[in-house]
Amino acid sequence: MNTTPDNSDWRRGQRKARRVNPSEFLKSKILLPSLEIQREIAETLSSAQHEIDLMKQLADKYKTQKRGLMQKMLTGEWRVKPDFVKSYGK
Asked: How far apart are CA 63 and CA 47, in angstroms?
C-alpha cells in the first residue's frame, strides 16, 4: 500500500500524517549550514529588510503627497487644465 497521498489528496487539503516518536525525533540529525553561510544569509536578509523598510517609507511619502495634491484639487485651490488631462488619455 502506498502511504504517500496523490496530488488530488493534497489539493483537497487532505494528508496522511505519520506520528513520530519523540525519542526517534531527538536522535535525528539536523543539518545546518556553516556559521559563515549562516552569517551571509543573515546579512542578506537584513539588507533586504532594510530595503523593504525604505520602500515602505517612500510609499508613505507618496501617499501623503497624493493626499495633499488631491485635497488642493478638490477644494479648487489648484486647477487642472483640460489639455493636460487629454494628453494622458492618448
From this structure: 24
State the pLDDT confidence band at 1, using cuts at 50, 70 and 90: very low
pTM of the model: 0.55
Tell me if 5 is assigned to some domain: no
Q: How many CB atoms lie within 10 A of CB 5?
A: 13
The domain in which residue 53 lies consists of 33-89
The answer to whether position 16 is within a domain reads no
Q: Is residue 24 part of a domain?
A: no
Phi, psi (deg, nearest 5) at residue 12: -85, 0
* Within-domain flag for 18: no
Largest CA distance in the chain: 76
DSSP 13: T
